[in-house]
Specification:
Tetrahydropterin Synthase, Chain A, 5-stranded mixed β-sheet, alpha+beta, single chain
Length: about 120
């Protein structure tokens, strides 16, 4: 099995409702996102999936988040745009775009800062 990783970033603002602390105020982050894709085999030229395709699919999802106020995005209208919820959102969106018999989305990792990240996957 092969695991491919592709990293991108986006900037956005949010605030955490019901949270006591600095993050209850409007603030922004430069998030980094990594998608990991598991592929079973390579094709005749030795490739599992073109990185360009993965980047294109990631950019489709990033357009929904980049330079946005995340609390106003429909997907976060009933839940806080925490790193955990952003990771779940990104995973769900990417799973719609990368999921065939050879390659499946394995996990999404979101960094809120250089020192903090969260990973979402459907593994147990």
């Amino acid at each position: 099995m092969f695991r491919l990783n592709v990293i991108a970033d986006f900037s956005a603002a949010h605030k955490l409702l019901g949270y006591q602390g600095a993050c209850q105020n409007l603030h922004g982050h430069n998030w980094k996102v990594k998608v990991a894709i598991d592929c079973q085999r390579t094709d005749k030229i030795g490739m599992t999936i073109d990185y360009g395709i993965v980047k294109e699919k990631m950019n489709e999802v990033l357009k929904k988040l980049d330079h946005k106020y995340l609390n106003e995005i429909t997907d976060f209208s009933h839940k806080n745009p925490t790193s955990e919820n952003i990771a779940h959102f990104f995973f769900s969106e990417m799973k719609k775009r990368i999921n065939n018999e050879n390659c499946q989305l394995a996990q999404v990792e979101i960094w809120e800062s250089d020192n903090t990240s969260v990973i979402y996957s459907e593994e147990r």
